[in-house]
């Protein structure tokens, strides 16, 4: 299906994506008097449309989702039959999924705010008038953040009402990595399984890594040990109970939400601002590619102590090398960042600061505006705010057309607020 074609009364603007069962399009429906509405159309993939099982699952999703109304759930406007094929008409959210976020680690305020909003949506589902509704597929691809920092749950294709679940072995549908242990062992699952999935998703975001194994309590415990930032570790003291392999030891969604809101209420505004800034910066990038979370992450070392030792050795060697280099060529050290200032950055002038564990914020601007790459990856167009790990980064400002007038800067960030990086011709 190409842009500009029609699906029934809907004109296709572009394909947004596809999954194992369905494909999704951004469409526009024209009304009287020149009125038009943009929305999302979801339909079964052409190769699956004749399969009765796919049609059954699709109709079940429609039946569950049509009556759901909550600000943290993507709204379903209606169900239609278009040329004999089922289709869902849905709210269009101008934002990005968590799978499109970079692999940089999230700070505590972002984690708290994302958790709070997702819990709001889950609590609505779990306390629904028709009986508890399990989402059963919380994963990076099924959680979206819009430009205002609002978090929304997507895709109810594998959700189901709790009272209809029979005992015994069931087929696991959804994303294997984020499924609760009882579902991986063949059980239908409980409402607390959604809480386990959310806890694991937050842990992956905190570590900036979506690929390490988590299928046993020991492996999961090792990942929790990698958390270094004190505020993030404090947050995960609350989340740890969500990650219990014993469903009876997990709190209910209402209890989890109440404890989180009571303990971290002051982080909400800042977290939403940072979620908004990161979403907007990625949306503004003209050449930003949608990258799966698994490909966009780095591998964590198998030993925490080994990682620290290797880091210390590497830092020491780098520091000695840079000092000797400057002494040998007689180059004076030129500071390239000042906390709280807006300065022109000297080309390729590294700072010899230590490598701290948590994140740094770096507002980036240019006159005229330019597209920005950080360490070889497109991140957006100026002005934007980058959330980076402390340490050395290469920031490349591309002119238009690309390569015609590139400006490269090497910055070495300390933890916390940092200088503005301002470039002018």
């Amino acid at each position: 299906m190409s842009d500009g074609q029609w699906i029934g009364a809907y004109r296709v603007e572009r394909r947004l994506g596809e999954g194992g069962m369905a494909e999704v399009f951004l469409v526009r429906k024209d009304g009287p008097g020149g009125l038009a509405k943009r929305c999302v159309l979801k339909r079964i993939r052409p190769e699956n449309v004749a399969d009765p099982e796919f049609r059954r699952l699709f109709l079940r999703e429609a039946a569950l989702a049509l009556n759901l109304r909550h600000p943290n759930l993507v709204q379903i406007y209606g169900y239609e039959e278009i040329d004999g094929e089922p289709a869902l008409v849905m709210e269009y959210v101008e934002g990005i999924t968590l799978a499109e976020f970079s692999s940089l680690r999230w700070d505590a305020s972002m984690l708290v705010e994302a958790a709070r909003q997702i819990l709001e949506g889950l609590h609505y589902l779990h306390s629904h008038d028709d009986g508890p509704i399990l989402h059963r597929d919380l994963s990076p691809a099924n959680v979206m953040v819009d430009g205002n920092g609002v978090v929304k749950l997507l895709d109810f294709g594998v959700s189901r009402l709790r009272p209809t679940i029979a005992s015994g072995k069931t087929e696991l549908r959804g994303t294997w990595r984020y499924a609760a242990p009882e579902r991986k062992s063949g059980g239908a699952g409980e409402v607390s399984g959604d809480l386990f999935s959310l806890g694991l998703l937050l842990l992956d975001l905190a570590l900036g890594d979506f690929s390490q194994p988590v299928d046993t309590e020991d492996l999961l415990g090792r990942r929790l040990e990698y958390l270094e930032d004190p505020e993030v570790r404090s947050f995960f003291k609350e989340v740890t109970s969500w990650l219990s392999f014993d469903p009876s030891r997990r709190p209910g969604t209402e209890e989890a939400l109440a404890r989180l809101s009571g303990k971290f209420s002051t982080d909400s505004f800042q977290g939403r601002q940072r979620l908004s800034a990161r979403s907007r910066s990625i949306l503004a990038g003209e050449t930003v590619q949608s990258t799966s979370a698994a490909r966009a992450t780095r591998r964590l070392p198998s030993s925490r102590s080994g990682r620290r030792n290797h880091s210390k050795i590497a830092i020491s060697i780098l520091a000695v090398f840079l000092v000797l280099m400057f002494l040998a060529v007689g180059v004076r050290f030129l500071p390239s960042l000042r906390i709280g200032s807006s300065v022109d950055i000297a080309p390729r002038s590294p700072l010899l600061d230590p490598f701290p564990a948590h994140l740094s914020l770096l507002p980036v601007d240019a006159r005229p505006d330019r597209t920005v790459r950080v360490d070889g990856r497109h991140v957006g167009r100026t002005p934007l705010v980058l959330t980076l790990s402390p340490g050395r980064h290469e920031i490349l400002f591309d002119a238009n057309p690309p390569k015609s007038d590139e400006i490269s800067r090497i910055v070495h960030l300390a933890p916390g607020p940092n200088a503005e990086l301002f470039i002018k011709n």
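The mean pLDDT is 74. The longest helix spans residues 304-329.
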